[in-house]
Amino acid sequence: MKAIRVREFGAPEVLRMEEVPDPRPGRGEILVRIRAVGVNPVDTYIRSGQYAINPPLPYTPGSDAAGDVEAVGEGVTSFRAGDRVYIYRSLSGAYAEKALCTEAQVHSLPKNVSYAQGAAIGVPYTTAYRALFHKAQARPAETVLVHGASGGTGIAAVQLARAAGMTIVGTAGTGKGKELVAREGAHHVVDHNAPDAPEQLMKPTGGRGFDVILEMLANKNLGKDLAMLTKFGRVAVIGSRGAVEINPRDIMGRDGAIIGMTSFNISDPDLAGIHAALVAGLENGALRPVVGQELPLQYAARAHQAVMEAGAYGKIVLVP
Ligand code: NAP
Fold first, then answer.
1. Contact at 8 Å (CB) between 44 and 76?
2. Which residue CA neighbors atom 32 of ligand 1 most closely?
3. Residue among 134, 100, 118, 125 at smallest CA distance from 28
4. Does the beta carbon of 289 lie inside 6 Å of ligand 1?
5. Which residue puts its alpha carbon closest to atom 20 of ligand 1?
6. Which of 10, 109, 23 is nearest to 68 (CA)?
7. Atom of ligand 1 lying closest to residue 308 CA
8. Which residues contact residue 200 at a Cβ distance below 8 angstroms, ignoring those fewer than 6 apart?
9. Alpha carbon distance 255, 252 (integer Å)
10. Per-residue pLDDT reduced to its tens digit, 151-168
11. Is 209 in the pocket of ligand 1 (CB under 6 A)?
């Protein structure tokens, strides 16, 4: 089969298509024929060699994909050949024509969800669910700011919060992104690049502030976020690309909290619960992954450049 391999850490050009042996499923394992692969910012951090956890070289990147079960190993009971599935993590890497997975890494892809949409579920929806419900403990009727709502994780957060009965303010950096965020469920949308963005964000809350802020770019926004929290408000830091100065007094007077998170720390039981909830949301149409761009798998390097550029519009997906 064909797979994208990384033989040295570095610029996007280190992503090269190679011919590799087809994996075979052992006991408890599932072989998935991949129809679409999700590209995440974390794939680029790992490829560059700058991430906290780096895989041994050479490796096949990627954690998110969707396709059909090709074969199952002994002892597998939940899936059989021909089932439509999405995967979150694998044993062999997702940027390939096939991926070897454990049974727990494979989830049913409802009929109403395309393969490309299935490739957009893994990291973004798992992260958004955990940030919103497990970390920030957001509740119905609360007011949530999704700071960076036009990308993969932001769209997921908007849809999840909307389905749970929260009031949502979302942000994007382009007109097209703002339209998307409104269409996917945000009650109010603001351009995060506007010089008066904090004032515009506070307006729909009537000056009360936010119960929950999901932050995609903490190095730019965290200092201002803290001053936009209501009493007992929580900021879940999902993304950050540098350092930031904060005034701790902004959370002291509010009994506020800053909560960090990484999807690598999710426990197996939490993961099983999250994916059960996601599959239910996909089936009933509350969750509708948005695919902004599809590229052939051999253009993985181009996809890695694109995912780091401004002007997000849902997910970038690679097609083997
Ligand atoms: P993405 O699809 O590339 O989207 C990036 C988002 O950041 C877009 O909505 C973009 O908006 C927004 N953004 C740009 N400038 C911003 C600003 N000044 N203020 C607020 N938002 C801004 O990436 P993603 O998958 O949604 O991930 C978002 C971030 O979270 C990334 O840094 C990623 O590494 C991180 N992340 C972390 C975890 C974790 O486990 N902690 C998991 C998933 C993602 P425009 O392009 O419209 O300007």
1. no
2. 239
3. 100
4. no
5. 148
6. 109
7. 3
8. 190, 191, 194
9. 5
10. 999 999 999 999 999 999
11. no
In Å, how far are 64, 110, 298, 319 from 67, measured between CA atoms?
11, 12, 18, 11
Is 52 near ligand 1, meaning CB less than 6 Å away? Answer: no
Helix (H) or strand (E) holding 128: helix 122-129
Nearest residue to 109 via CA among 119, 100, 101, 96? 119
Q: Which of 124, 177, 127 is nearest to 150 (CA)?
A: 177
DSSP reduced 3-state for 290: coil
- Ligand 1 proximity of 44 Cβ (cutoff 6 Å): no
Helices 122-129 & 152-163 angle (0-180, nearest 10): 50
What does each C-alpha distance from 130 to 137, 264, 307 come to in angstroms?
9, 11, 22
Segments of the chain with pLDDT less than 50: none
Q: What are phi and psi of 84, to 5 degrees?
A: -80, 130
Q: Is 246 in the pocket of ligand 1 (CB under 6 A)?
A: no
Structure tokens given for 174: 């382009």
CA of 152 to the centre of ligand 1 (A): 8
Residue 274, both tokens: 């999250």
CB of 73 closer than 6 A to ligand 1?
A: no
CA angle at 269 for the pair 264 and 275, rounded to the nearest 5°: 80
Residue whose token pair is 């802020």: 213
Structure confidence at residue 219 (pLDDT): 98
Q: Say which DSSP state 134 is in.
A: I
pLDDT digit string, tens, across residues 58-101: 999 999 999 999 999 999 999 999 999 999 999 999 999 999 99
Identify the pLDDT of residue 109: 98
Q: Which atom of ligand 1 is nearest to the CA of 310?
A: 46
pLDDT of residue 249: 97
Length of the chain: 320
Ligand 1 centroid to residue 1 C-alpha, Å: 32
State the residue for tokens 């509350």: 286
